[in-house]
Amino acid sequence: MMAEDDKEAQKKKDTVGVDGLNEGALSAMVDGTMDMAAPISSDFVLCRGTASLENAMGTFPHEVKLPFTNQSVLKWALAPHDVDTFIADVWEKKALHIPHEDASYFEDIMTFEDLEDVLLNAAEDEEFGQTLTFKHQNQVYYDNGMRAYLDGASVVLNHVDKQSPSINLLCQALGHHFPHAFANMYLTPPNSQAVHPHSDDRDVLLLQVWGKKAWKIYSSPQRLPYSDEQVGKDGVRLTSEEMGPLTLECVVEQGDVLYIPRGFVHEARAQAAGSLHLTIAIPTQDFTWAGVLLDAIKQHLRAPQHARFRHC
């Protein structure tokens, strides 16, 4: 049986989460007063977390209380734009910055204070807790995400909807309007750029949770590209000619939304205080008519009577 002193010590460890990263340190990270160049202790390690979304419901400091329903989620995200007008005039056609002028707009989805719990859950999730780190626009490797961030690296957590109840419910609500939606998280140090200009095979809605980021959106080299037509991936650097003309330049502030259509080349740089944003990915390439037809043909040709097509 655990002694009372041991219980108190464990409770303190669970509350702090990262050795030496207490509430004061989190506040310093938020207000930009932390010395990002300061050396990091060798015992700066993540303590235990939980990978279970059900258990994660109890780890977050705020109650999951969403400001939208499954029916109104797009109206909430795109406000003050009309949803039908957005689909007709913007969707898959051009990027759009939506200033909400309300820093608390996403506080029911995620706040900076939720970051520790999200990273702890991911650290214990062997199936979905994929955390990537980048420094000077190259992938690097750290033993945990907070150490990486304090060392000046950007932290990318794929499928963060598996680690946060509120983000998961947001994606579920969007699933009533699109075939599928999932979320990735990007934590970027001050005045840093995580990756080189590139395009993606999905449409995305970016939710700026904390800080601000300067974005440049270029044209699409290939309209509505398939996965093998993405550019700027796997270390390939794009020339200005390959990126095409600049179509939108903006600073996305806390509480704002940025929509980027599939295929549009983009790049972003965090501003003086750093940045935390969610990318809500709508994998439209997976649900194109061409993709459905190719999958149907492939499945059809797997039948025993079509074995001759397996020969080269």
Q: Overall 3D geometry?
A: globular
**Which radius of gyration do the C-alpha atoms yield?**
21 Å
Query: What order do the SSEs take from the amino end to the carboxyl end, as H and E?
Result: HHHHHEHEEHEHEEHEEEH
Indicate the structural class.
alpha+beta
Biggest pleated-sheet summary: 9 strands, antiparallel
Give the % helix.
25-40%
Number of helices: 10
Q: Give the terminus-to-terminus CA distance.
A: 66 Å
User: What do the pLDDT scores average to?
Assistant: 83
Q: Which residues sit in consecutive blocks of at least 5 with pLDDT less than 50? A: 6-27, 34-52
Q: DSSP strand (E) fraction?
A: 15-25%
| Secondary structure tally: strands | 9
Question: Could you please describe the fold and organization of this structure?
Answer:
The structure is a single chain. Helices cover 26% and strands 21% of the residues. It contains ten helices and nine strands. It has helices at residues 4-16, 23-31, 53-56, 73-78, 83-89, 115-123, 145-150, 165-174, 240-243, 289-301; strands at residues 96-98, 131-135, 138-140, 154-157, 182-188, 203-218, 246-252, 257-260, 266-282. Strand 2 and strand 3 (138-140) form a beta hairpin. The longest helix is centred in the first third of the chain and has 13 residues, at 4-16.
